[in-house]
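User: I'm curious whether this sequence folds into something compact or stays loose and floppy. Could you predict its structure so I can see for myself?
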Amino acid sequence: AASSSSPPAVITCRAAVAWGPGQALVMEDVEVAPPGPLEIRVKVVSTSICRSDVTQWQSTAQPDLFPRIFGHEASGVVESVGEGVTEFQVGDHALTVFIGECMSCKHCVSGKSNMCQTLGLERKGVMHSDQTTRFSIGGKPVYHYCAVSSFSEYAVVHSGCAVKVSPTMPMDRICLLSCGASAGLGAAWNVADVSKGSSVVIFGLGTVGLSVAQGAKLRGASKIIGVDTNPDKQEKGKAFGVTDFINPAELNEPVQQVVKWLTDGGADYSFECVGDTGVVSTALQSCSDGWGLTVTLGVPKAKPEVSAHYGLLLSGRTLKGSLFGGWRPKSDIPLLVEKYANKEIQVDGLVTHDMPFSDINKALELMLQNRCLRCVIHIFH
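Assistant: Here's the prediction. I'll summarize afterward.
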């Protein structure tokens, strides 16, 4: 780690680099620049693979943003701090977050939103502050992902996109709170505000869907229906609060008809956690007239437009979107870490594989084959 007296220097480290859409990641020596003003450089300890990493890695929509380092769901130790950083010190443990909280823009001060106007979702493969990269190979830029890029031994992130955590927390588990687990819990608690005794249907029982189920269970929902084409998800779902399981592949009628039958006319809350805009319409049809609320959380791989019959809305249903479960990273994530520490929320059960950094391509393959929930990659042991 850099001492406080000498300015941070360029670090050369190992990173898993994607050279093109869907191409196997290659372990490369990359140069990581020192942190700029209000930035920190983090030694990545653990990173878990999120479905959106895989979706964007395979996407051909931004072919010019390669070579690129993916990864965003991570934990690490602050190695050095840039000018003006007062919140973090060298040696602090931190979670990286794919959206930030500047504390001063219109959205941050509203108390109603996590859509920070300064440190919002970064889509151009660069840092928020100066629109350049901190990674390079042979002097040529390597692009970031969500301004995090945790498939690397070291990464530079804006201090507003990181959350300080207690050094007693297990790095290889709390990394899930930097995206997937928090997104699901927040969708149930913040966005839908699930009420006691209510009925819930969840489409897609991956990490996010199971976390929605857990959130609904902790709120006292009486019926939590899980919908997934993978029969293995039935048992996993039970552990997170799912009371009824539907496999659409085994039905002779539309899913929404079965949900309506199970809930006496439609669920109070419906969650789309697949990343399929066609499922959004099904989820909307599965919730109740009058007050049914559908929350969409998935990132679609194709067809970004949502289509639904206007009558579904005219009859009183609501469709809402959710990014990171409505949580504000700085203000709210420490509370979730505390809940984890107090064993009030379950995270460990979402991890199905622990793998060394050298096996990252195997982990991506498991995600593509739907054979895992979260694979945690151990960058530094």
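Summary: The mean pLDDT is 96. The CA atoms of residues 30 and 137 lie 5 Å apart.
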